[in-house]
Amino acid sequence: MQTLILAAGESSRFWPFSEICHKSLLKVGNKTLLEQTIEGVKGNDVILIINPNAQLSDEITKNKSIKIVIQEEPKGMADAIIKAKSLIKEDFLVIMPYYVNIKDYIQKLSKVEAPAVAVKKYEEGDEKTHGIARIEKNKIIEIREKEKFNYADYSIVGMYKLNKEIINRLEKIQRPEYKFEDLLNEIAKTKGVNYFKADGLPSLKYVSDLLSIKKFVYSNVKQKNKSEKPKNKNNVFIETSVIIGKNVKIGNNVSIKGETYIGDNSFVGDNSLIRDSIIGENTEIGFGTEIARSIIMDNTHIHSGFIGDSIIGQGCRLGANFITGNRRIDRKGIKIEIKDIYDTGLTRLGVIMGYNTKTGINTSVMPGTLIGNNSIIGSNTEVKGKVESNKLVYSKKENVEKDI
Fold first, then answer.
1. CA triplet 11, 45, 12: central angle to 5 degrees?
2. What is the pLDDT of residues 8-58, one digit of tens each?
3. pLDDT tens digit string along 182-221?
């Protein structure tokens, strides 16, 4: 089956990483999200829609089964499908570039007749980021964008099985305000649209959603790597679930637990504890550091401290005793500021930090803090809310000297 992968959007809700690359080109674990998605449709001919600024790896550009189409401007899904028309020969699959667990659905898709849409059970607030669908007699009979309506109990997931007739109809209309969802709703109301359930696909609308994809990345890595056996040498304990890359050095009195992956050429210092986290390549975790349920990207150095439920970009340098607050005292949900104030739906969220940011000693961040790329946070500084990229932030403190 031909597979169209949409990777040309603006990723505007993915700040600060949107300043660096498209969200699908973030490396989480041992590969980018896009590379992991392409692996999941191995054996299919892939048509990859990208923006003109995308920097693709050799693994993608040299793959003869991948055809690349440039979408000059982010004009939406309808425009992307029309641009790929000359390459489409049969019924085709349309997916998002971060469906790193897509292989779990390929067999199910082969049995569904196009046009068909992936759906999941509606959850409160889905209308903010999903189309909402009403289903009767095993067909979708109505779809609305950004609106919950009566008897609509399902949300549209960004995966579709389509046919060439859809492309022809889109070409005939070609109005700027006309969206792919408009056509899908027209078909739903006239003859109905088939559907298949896909409750387990990740959603990456906002940058905080990256934490939800962690378990899928871990699963992909585990399928290709053997788990470490428990170790007690030098008081090191590694659970059987943990995946350790090549040339990783581990100090004394270290404990590594849960669904954790540590990338090649990394270092874990004495007395450290790592739980349910993805640690990138060439990363240094210093003495006495605790990391829980977090993503740490490549080439980042952490001297010591606590990092919980956080995302740290590539090339960061975190000074001694760096502390993330990851829960509100009242245990309420955590909101972040990207374009507007967004309720993440999470009660645990630490810091989201861009690439190449540095912190001095004894810095701390409050729950839901966002820090941009290439910024510096000074020593003994507490940060909350949002720090833009390329900023220097520090607290002014005055020493008082008096005679005794």
1. 0
2. 988 888 999 999 999 999 999 999 999 999 999 998 899 999 999 889 999
3. 889 999 999 999 999 988 888 888 999 999 999 999 999 9
β-pair type (340-346, 305-308): unpaired
The pair phi, psi for residue 304, each rounded to 5°, is -170, 165
User: How far apart are the C-alpha atoms of 347 and 342, rounded to whole Å?
Assistant: 13
Contacts of 123 (CB under 8 A, 6+ apart): 155
CA distance 315 to 290: 19
CA-wise closest residue to 252 among 276, 235, 227: 235
Please name which of 375, 370, 371 lies closest in space to residue 358, comparing C-alpha atoms: 375
Name which of 101, 99, 6, 98 is nearest 46 in CA terms: 6
Element (H, E) at 187: helix 180-190
Within 13 Å and on the Cβ side, how many CA atoms surround 18? Answer: 18
Domains of the chain (ranges, CATH numbers): 2-205 (3.90.550.10), 211-393 (2.160.10.10)
